[in-house]
Design brief:
The protein is α/β, with parallel strands linked by helices and 440 residues long. Helix content is 50%, strand content 18%. Helix 2 packs across helix 3, helix 8 packs parallel to helix 9 and helix 13 packs across helix 14. The protein binds ligand C2E and magnesium ion (2 copies).
Length: 440
Amino acid sequence: DPITGAENISRFRQRLLEILPESGGAVVKFSIRQFSFLNEIFGNEKTTRLLCQITETAGHHFHSGEFFCHHTEDIFYFFLAETDEQTIRSRLDTFLQELGHKTDISQTNYQLAFYCGVALSQGGGDPEQTADILMTHVQFALNKAEGSHSNFIWFFDSELHKQEELENYIESHMHQALAKEEFKLFLQPKKNLKTGELESAEALVRWKPDDGRLLFPNQFIPLFEQNGFCVELDLYMVEQACRLIRSWIDSKIVPIPISVNQSKLLFFEPDYVQTLEGILERHQVSPKFIILEILEGLALENVEELNEKISQLQEAGFRISLDDFGSGYSSMNTLSRLKINELKLDRGFLLSAAGPEHEKSRLIMGQIIQLSHQLDISTVSEGVETAEDEEFIRSIGCDVGQGYFYHRPISAKEFHEIYMAEPGKRSMNVSAASANPKSD
Ligand code: C2E
Ligand code: MG
Ligand code: MG
């Protein structure tokens, strides 16, 4: 390298290819915070001197079998013959500390800071391929270090990376996925506990990219809530539900209502009610077949405004359900102030009703159901997984049960075949008896 006299990147890679088949180690990519400003403040000569001082200091810190290079600008690569995170971290800490007080610039009152991204290999395998992977991963790790305010040494984390890869896939494919109808309507039955019959079904989205994967809402809905895409997706799901209901009506099948999850963002869309009405009109479906599920978190912010929207929706003929009640900061107070039609008790209630504190939670559940009935609100228990769960919720007067005990969410086609296609198949006691939850 003409600037520092250190080795250059080609030599570094060559050495890496030589060592990888024999032993593992860590590739470190090093950078300097705001390097371009350093150039501007101190001038080219002083920053070149800094790079040379880094080269010198690095030279003292390496053991045999280790090597490094200066690449371009402020970028250095190191190879450490270590695979233990603690050891690598402590060696890099010592190195960075030394740089922090030994260089000319660190003698001024300018706060020098350095970043290190680290990627590990246990050695073996195809060296070309391993080297490529290490060089890619170390860049991701350096990006993380540069974006962090406290952790200047960042190890490549394959779990985190997989998660980020997925997020990147989601954000770069969501629009085309919607256009290509990759979002599928799945349905989970809700059972009327008084009659034993199918009462309604909840629409749950699944994403089927054309590579054969199946993505679940918890993998993409939180991201869509952040980037606003939920608005489009939720309306699309209403549309899909309407299509299905329309197909039942056309086949002379008495439809059941479908609950659709609606994200908080929709409630802030100024023409939300009209948009929904437009969708229903297009499919000639009555709003009495659509239940809109909203999350209790929505109720925390502004009860008055929310009630106003709920009233408009109810006047338009929709029913409103409060989802996952009890999972967050819900209170009896919210319950009494919100003008909802249905309350869904979070699965957590049934879990604790079976746990060590079962008496208390059973009492609370019973009270919520009683209060709801006094307020003319129908009640649904989520997460019914066993016959005992069902027996218990029936005993406390709950109206509807939903959960794996009856069925997991299934494709609209399968749902149609099981519950809708033949008249007289809507008794869920039959299917509950043979309930062995099928997978999604
Ligand atoms: P949610 O609305 O509370 O839906 C119920 C979730 O619990 C579903 O998960 C369902 O598969 C699961 N579940 C049902 N019965 C049982 C049971 O007996 N045991 C257990 N352990 N789980 C059960 P899913 O389909 O993964 O959906 C997760 C969440 O994603 C939903 O919770 C809902 O908040 C959201 N979501 C799903 N589809 C949509 C959508 O189209 N739009 C929006 N905005 N959110 C959606
Ligand atoms: Mg729901
Ligand atoms: Mg729920």
